[in-house]
TrEMBL record, chain A:
Residues 265-401 form the Thiolase C-terminal domain. It comes from Pseudomonas laurentiana. It holds the Pfam family Thiolase_C_1. This is Thiolase family protein. The lineage of its organism: Bacteria, Pseudomonadati, Pseudomonadota, Gammaproteobacteria, Pseudomonadales. InterPro entries: Thiolase, Thiolase-like, Thiolase_C_2. PANTHER family: ACETYL-COA C-ACETYLTRANSFERASE (PTHR42870), NON-SPECIFIC LIPID-TRANSFER PROTEIN-LIKE 2 (PTHR42870:SF1). SUPFAM superfamilies: Thiolase-like (SSF53901). One of its GO terms (molecular function) is acetyl-CoA C-acyltransferase activity.
TrEMBL record, chain B:
SUPFAM superfamilies: Nucleic acid-binding proteins, Thioesterase/thiol ester dehydrase-isomerase. It comes from the Bacteria. The lineage of its organism: Bacteria, Pseudomonadati, Pseudomonadota, Gammaproteobacteria, Pseudomonadales. Residues 184-281 form the MaoC-like domain. This is Acyl dehydratase. It holds the Pfam family MaoC_dehydratas. Residues 18-53 form the ChsH2 rubredoxin-like zinc ribbon domain. Residues 55-119 form the ChsH2 C-terminal OB-fold domain.
């Protein structure tokens, strides 16, 4: 069962993260066209080589239904495979394996995976306060009959911060908690960002003291343990091994994946501290025939420091309850003995909506291709990538390998 | 209590739960096919998908599964609950519920602690939410709406203010500072107060007075107080100033050099204020003291009112 490793990521494009206020405003269709052109150039392919598309349905500006057909029409693509993925921050990881599976099934040979995440221009009759109203409840449904509208929002349970905070609190009660180790996750990643001129926090080093002195948002989380939302967007080209043979750079073959989800609110998880990334990662490693110790780098979805910590444990990089010690004992920077989120992670690179998770996939591809510049790892053949949506509700893992 | 907090809208499926709370009874579903307990209400059992769930009254004994105290409200409307004590509790039947803790100090809260339900009244219509508290607490006492505090509460243990004569130019000049005073007492700006001000002033624009429309159309998700109302509520807040001007015969509100309303005050917000002496001038008509008064929603960095108030002390 699983992938044979006959599909690879061969081209990428990513907008430099910017503040929403100053980023260019572009229609999502235009962002898709722009990112596609850039990713095709990176891969060394022509538009007519594309015959597959994976795109977001939720949060697509110009339409919420019929998105793939509209995008195909706008870009002039003829598709044999089209797919919408709705997995929040896990969307990028979910896109990669779906594209690879479609290629291995012989449906298509080159797939564009794309997530536009800059804001669109406001229409002449559109009221800017519409945005404020739409943002009031974040990602929560307020529809009549939506369980969260009825049983969470009236109590003030909303947004991601408090859900992650409650997971961290339970972790503390069960295994103990070292705020310094948690801060070190953010600090090591900030060190990585100092070697990545594209990162939002390039040129702004960070200390453990600064993290611990930053404002508490919801106990025990500090604001510097939480990603900053930015404008951005990203795309990847995934192709068959035949197409990959004429790629401009070293391809990153998709040799393993796993996906797991069972709830939206972690309050209803069987055990809040055994996250879905566990089963997802086990499947990915098994499919690729690798163990956690075999990877040269881990690009771990890091909306919060606690997300990274629990992924280190549940993916098997260390034992349950030993994540804090693992972080203390390892150097997580690109120079270190456990290179993690070598682009800075989303904590220091910036989180461009659901495209934030693509930054982790793209960094894995960049390291495997050997074009990461100052932060390039000496050896990078096997990379683990994780994706997390919601409040550790939908999670996925990938194993990418250089041939 | 904010008027703008999201409220549950019962469905045909969930109505027995909410009706139960109104009667101070906790009703939870159990699958008659597989005996699995179910929360939140559904039509199908999530363990076996049987379409056969029965409502059962349970005691509500529970343990704390996890919690967090918020330092920034999850929605501005929850400012009056700060820090919000958000919790996941596990009922003895095994189901988990997202809820709030009430009547517990921060250091009394521990994961695993036993809890009991509080049928918390949240509006005048008798609607209730299911909250939880410690076993040694008086759950009935915690059911009531928090008392609306709109009377000035003097700040306790404030040192006796220094008395400065209104002709003492040197001492008055020494008051000028960039540093603001401590906060005043806080008061709640509720819909009743906003409605009264709308009637008095004639400004009955819907964004202040129509909670239903404002919930749908206001960028703030509900009604907000008039800027002018928040400005005049200054009189209900006792400023924590460490001086008192004396020796004059009359004190006149001479107006304002600058008046701004940079941030909204959603209905139900708690506000407080602070001040600094911005300028002092001894003029032929009297001593003119400019106080920069800032009123904030409690916990917000951005002021809702900035008022450079000019006070004239006459001999």
């Amino acid at each position: 069962m699983g992938l044979k490793g006959h599909a690879a990521i061969i081209g990428t494009a990513q907008y430099k993260p910017e503040k929403y206020a100053t980023a260019p405003k572009m229609f999502h269709l235009e962002q898709v066209a722009d990112l596609a052109a850039q990713a095709l150039r990176d891969a060394g392919l022509r538009p007519e080589d594309l015959d597959g598309l994976v795109i977001n349905g939720p949060q697509f500006h110009e339409a919420s239904v019929f998105v793939p057909a509209m995008a195909a029409e706008y870009l002039g693509l003829r598709l044999n495979f089209a797919e919408v993925v709705d997995l929040g921050g896990c969307t990028s990881v979910g896109m990669v394996w779906r594209a690879a599976a479609a290629i291995e099934l012989g449906l298509c040979q080159a797939v564009l995976c794309v997530l536009p995440a800059r804001m669109a221009p406001l229409g002449p009759d559109e009221d800017p306060s519409w945005m404020a109203r739409a943002m009031r409840f974040g990602g929560h449904s307020t529809a009549f009959g939506a369980p969260e509208a009825e049983f969470d929002l009236p109590y003030g349970h909303m947004g991601q911060n408090t859900g992650y905070a409650m997971i961290a609190q339970r972790y503390a009660a069960q295994y103990g908690y070292d705020p310094v180790a948690m801060a070190k996750i953010a600090v090591d990643q900030r060190t990585n960002a100092q070697a990545n001129p594209q990162a939002m926090f390039y040129g702004q080093p960070l200390t453990i003291e600064q993290v611990l002195a930053s404002k508490r948002v919801a106990d025990p989380l500090h604001v510097l343990e939480i990603v900053m939302p930015v404008a951005g967007g990203a795309a990847m080209i995934i192709a068959s091994k035949e197409v990959a043979a004429r790629a401009r750079k070293r391809p990153a073959f998709i040799t393993g994946f796993g996906e797991h989800l069972a709830f939206k609110s972690p309050s209803y998880a069987a055990d809040m501290l055994h996250t879905p990334i566990g089963p997802a990662s086990r499947r990915a490693f098994e499919m690729a025939g690798l163990k956690p110790a075999d990877v040269d780098a881990a690009q771990i979805y890091d909306c919060y420091t606690i997300t990274a910590l629990l992924t280190l444990e549940d993916a098997g990089f260390c034992a349950k309850g030993e994540g804090m010690a693992f972080v203390r004992e390892h150097d997580l920077t690109w120079r270190g003995d456990f290179p993690m989120n070598t682009h800075g992670g989303q904590l220091s690179f910036g989180q461009a909506g659901s495209a934030g998770g693509m930054s982790q996939v793209i960094e894995a591809v960049t390291q495997i291709a050997g074009v990461a510049g100052e932060r390039q790892l000496g050896r990078c053949d096997n990379v683990y990538v994780s994706g997390t949506g919601g409040v550790m509700s939908e999670q996925g893992a990938l194993i990418l390998q250089g041939a | 209590m904010s008027n703008n907090k999201p409220m549950p809208v019962p469905t045909e499926i969930s109505a027995p739960f909410w009706e139960g709370l109104k009667a101070k009874r906790l009703l939870i579903q159990q699958c008659t096919a597989c005996a699995h307990w179910v929360f939140y209400p559904r039509r199908h059992c999530p363990a076996c998908l049987a379409h056969d769930l029965a409502w059962r009254e349970v005691e509500g004994s529970a343990t704390l599964y996890s919690y967090t105290l918020t330092r920034i409200p999850t929605l501005p409307d929850f400012m009056d609950e700060m820090p919000q004590k958000l919790a996941v509790v596990e009922l003895a039947e095994g189901v988990r519920i997202n809820t709030n803790l009430v009547g517990l100090a921060e250091d009394e809260i521990h994961i695993g602690m036993p809890l009991k339900p509080v049928f918390a009244q949240v509006d005048a219509k008798g609607n209730r939410l299911l909250r939880f508290t410690g076993l040694d607490k008086d759950a009935v006492n915690l059911e009531q709406l928090p008392a609306v505090d709109s009377e000035p509460v003097p700040v306790s243990s404030q040192p006796e203010p220094r008395k400065i004569d209104f002709n003492d130019a040197a001492s008055l000049q020494a008051l000028v500072s960039e540093q603001f005073s401590d906060w005043s007492n806080s008061i709640v700006v509720d819909q009743a107060l906003i409605d009264a001000f709308a009637q008095l002033s004639g400004d009955d624009y819907w964004i202040h007075t129509d909670p239903e429309r404002a919930r749908l159309q206001s960028p703030f998700g509900g009604t907000i107080a008039h800027g002018a109302l928040v400005q005049v509520l200054q009189s209900r807040m006792k400023l924590a100033l460490d001086f008192e001007v004396t020796g004059f015969s009359t004190q006149i509100n001479y107006g304002s050099d600058r008046l701004r309303f940079p941030a909204p005050v959603p209905a139900g917000s708690r506000i407080h204020s602070r001040a600094r002496v911005k300028q002092v001038e001894l003029l032929p008509r009297g001593t003119q003291l400019t106080l920069e008064l800032n009123t904030h929603v409690v916990g917000h960095d951005r002021p809702s009112v900035i008022n450079d108030l000019v006070i004239l002390y006459r001999a």
